[in-house]
Amino acid sequence: MKKAVVLLSGGLDSTTCLAMAQAQGFECVCLVVSYGQRHAVEVAQAQTVAKLRGVTDVRVVQLSLREVGGSALTADIAVPKDRPASDMAHGIPVTYVPARNTLFLSLALGLAEVVGALDIFIGVNAVDYSGYPDCRPEFIRAFETLAVLATKAGVEGSRFKIHAPLSALTKADIIKAGLKLGVDYASTHSCYDPVNGKACRRCDSCLLRAKGFAEAGVADPTQYA
After folding, report:
1. Whole-angstrom distance, CA of residue 42 vs CA of residue 134
2. What is the pLDDT of residue 129?
3. At a CB cut-off of 8 Å and minimum separation 6, what does 164 contact?
4. First to last CA, the chain
5. CATH superfamily of 3-216
6. pLDDT digits over 24-48, tens only?
7. Widest pairwise Cα distance in the chain
């Protein structure tokens, strides 16, 4: 089987993305990044998800973005709570981590070159995505161009493909697709500000997740604080 590197956070989106990559016949190598995030519980959750999905090669990269800061996820900045959907649809919230997906895809690109993969999967979403600029299709296409220019494999004629299969889907669509692929959403974690390891129910990520389950007509299996 062809190999693919899948960026895995243990959340709803990245777990669905992993299932989609497996459904396409890829042997998946999962890359989990511990970057000093407030919701560090997701690192262990990602490893649990990978095991449940039968992935045997899971790489955990440790780096700290706390020295960079600038985000409610990596600095002492309050995570927004109870925001209406209309507010989420405008502007870039303080949960945006500067250059995070650029860094993550760079790490995935390096790993892909090492393990002999030309395919990278990332669970970014440009519909229910809280306004993050590095979730847009334009960013993904630009990184594909960079991947060719920046790697030995690219210079020698190989072309990397960045797969973002969730990009145009709503949360409800993502959940429906994942359920068809056997995703166990009870094993996933999406909260930005967990309380004793459980979801807060009030941050943007929790609200978008709950909205997705409601619109999909599926019971929400999330464990809330």
Report:
1. 20
2. 59
3. 121, 122, 123, 124, 137, 140
4. 41
5. HUPs (3.40.50.620)
6. 999 999 999 999 999 889 999 999 9
7. 52
